Amino acid sequence: MDQYVIKGGSPLVGEVEIGGAKNAALAIIAAAIMTDETVLIDNLPDVNDINVLLQAIEGIGATVTRVDCHTVKINASNISDFNVEYDYIKKIRASYYLLGAMLGKYKRATVALPGGCNIGSRPIDQHLKGFRALGADIDIEHGKVVADAEVFRGSNVYFDVVTVGATINVMMAATMAEGLTVMENVAKEPHVVDVANFLNSMGANIRGAGTDVIKIRGVKRLHGTQYSVIPDQIEAGTFMYAAAATRGDVTVLNVIPKHLESTIAKLEEIGCEVEEFDDAVRVVSKGNLKSTHVKTLPYPGFPTDMQPQMGVVLSLCNGTSTVTESIFENRFKYLDELSRMGGVSKIEGHSATIEGVKGLSGARVSAPDLRAGAALCIAGLAAEGITIVDDIVYIQRGYERFEEKLKGLGAIIQKVSSEKEIQKFKFRVS
Catalytic: which of 117, 272, 317, 377? Predict the structure, then answer.
């Protein structure tokens, strides 16, 4: 099992290029099977989740051609299997997007109930509510969602909660439904807009993505396209917060600053200097950071996927901070691991109180999920001494060349797979 071993205490300095948005790319790959023509997608992140989903669509009959590690051609004209097996779903939750894509195009689909990161309950009831409103019959049988529709018609869909997954999934299904679909109380995240733009580039008629109401006029067929995925705001935020924690000076390249507004606002609140450019953001941290309060909210609020990284930074700020998690209930597991490094916090329900400490010390910790794993690496980079992060398979699901990009900023980090390699690393850096 791979691990990261980190020698902390050095500021991160330099430039890092941000890859394509994983959460947008996953939905776009699923949507690509909605046409019989060839689709070319570039700026894909080369991470495990993407590769698993590409295997899943190959498994149902699509032809997938890797042009390079960030570009793929997909042709779904030979899909004949409408059953997506659990082996794919248990690895990545986003495989459920194939439900909306196949329902939209083929009017039937069987998809295993999803797995993914263990960060709390993420029911798909709103997805199923939307599919039923469009005319699908839905059954749950033997751990699978079985959906079919004799006639798929546009409808009004009001989501009880703001949900990115359901917004995208129902939007895909409605793209090829008869008539007009009006979706209200929808998610406004950048990747929702990116998926809508991708579908529109294939001939869909979607308006209002990025607002509270999305209107979709169904079309009979979609055509091929070439499309580039937006930059990953969470990867960008992770490196920006790593700069804050290590008293560094980091410029993230290939970003859309507008997507980072809430992330930037909190950095400025705690005392970092932030400079925005057309497609880059520079973060300078001179230490002596001050506490603040954070509440995760749907976009344009502070993203839940940045909450663990923020929590680590707040543990190094002067004073007492509070973090309220309003999206997922199990997102504070990293704080137990952080306590091994000297972090001080108290969790009560959906809120955590974090007491700033003068410094963290290296320890052996375990990544409980994707973003928490990245956050613990940030803690290790800021800590004195050696930190070992176990279970980095989570991190590799969502960050491309993570340790290489950190090394490019001056981090002392290595991926290892044995105690012998850990000891060699310790000897080398001592």
Answer: 117
